[in-house]
Amino acid sequence: MILRLVELDIQGSPGESMDRFLEAAVTLPLPHTVVLPELFTTGYVLERIPRLAHSPKELSGLPPARTARENGIWIVAGTLPVAVAGGVVNMMVVYDPEGRLVYTTEKVHLFSQMDEDTAFVPGSCGGIFDYTSTGAGGIVCYDLRFPELSRRLTLSGAEILFVPAQWPSGRRELFRSLLRARAAEAQVFTVGCNLGGEHLGVLFNGGGGVAHPGGTMVKGMDVSQGVSDYDIDLEDVSAMREKINCLEDRRPEEYGLLLEWRGRLGR
User: For each of the chain's 267 residues, which pLDDT tens digit applies?
Assistant: First the structure.
C-alpha cells in the first residue's frame, strides 16, 4: 500500500491551510492513506487556540471527511485543537475511505518548554482502531519520547503507529531516530509526518518518514514539493516477528521501579 506524507507549511487562515493540505493529499496517483502534520491548520498560535478550537460535534463533518469519501482513501488528518469539558486538547483525527470519523486520540504529553500547557490540557490515549484488517494507533509529536505510550498501543494490537508532529529541523535526526526506535522495539511500522517550511520563526522543513519494523527507514518517492509516498507491506510486521519477537520475550516482572536499589545507593 502507498502511504503519503503531506509536509507543507502553514499559510493563510485555518480554512485556507486545510484546503492546501487536502489538495496536495489527492495529487494523482491517489495513495491508500494520507497523513498530515500536527496542528496543520493553526500551528502553535497559543493565544488564539481557544477561539480556533473545534467542538467534538464538528469533527465528523470537516473537509477531510468529504475528501476521504470522494477519493476512497484513508486520511490521518494530523491534529486539531478541540474543546472538551476540561479545556482544549490537541486531538488526532482519522477518517476511513467512506468518510467516517473512525478514531480520535489526544496528545498525552504537553511540551511545557514552549508553553503548550498554557493553551492545551493533557489528553488521553484513544487506544487502537481497525485499519485495513490490522490494528493501528496514534501518538502526537512529543509523545514519541515516551516509549511507555507506544508500547501500550503495540501490546493492545497496533501494528502501525501514526505520529503527526512539529519537530524543529535542528532535531530532525532525533525525530527520525525515535521513529526507528519505536518501530524496532516492537516490530511495527511508525509513520511520522512533520510540518514543512517555517512557522513562528522556527524552521521545520518536513523530514518525517516511515520506519520499517526492522528498524530502517523506508525510502520515499517525491510526488511534489513537500509531498512524498512510501510503499509498505503490512505483512512485514508478522515476518519480522517470526525472526525476532520482542513482545513475546518481554519479562514485565522485571520492569518495576528499583526502589530497594535506590535506597541502598542513598546509604
Answer: 999 999 999 999 999 999 999 999 999 999 999 999 999 999 999 999 999 999 999 999 999 999 999 999 999 999 999 999 999 999 999 999 999 999 999 999 999 888 999 999 999 999 999 999 999 999 999 999 999 999 999 999 999 999 999 999 999 999 999 999 999 999 999 999 999 999 999 999 999 999 999 999 999 999 999 999 999 999 999 999 999 999 999 999 999 887 665 555 454
pTM value is: 0.95
Q: Got the DSSP string for the chain? A: -EEEEE-----SSHHHHHHHHHHHHTPSSP-SEEE--TTTTT-S-GGGHHHHPBPGGGGGGSHHHHHHHHHT-EEEEEEEEEEETTEEEEEEEEE-TTS-EEEEEE--S--GGGTGGGT--------EEEETTEEEEE--GGGGG-HHHHHHHHHTTEEEEEEEE---GGGHHHHHHHHHHHHHTTT-EEEEEE--SEETTEE-----EEE-TTSSBPPPEEEETTEEEEE--THHHHHHHHH--TTTT--GGG-S--HHHHHHHH-
Domains along the sequence of the chain with CATH:
2-266 (3.60.110.10)
Mode of pairing for the β-strands spanning 33-35 and 2-6: parallel
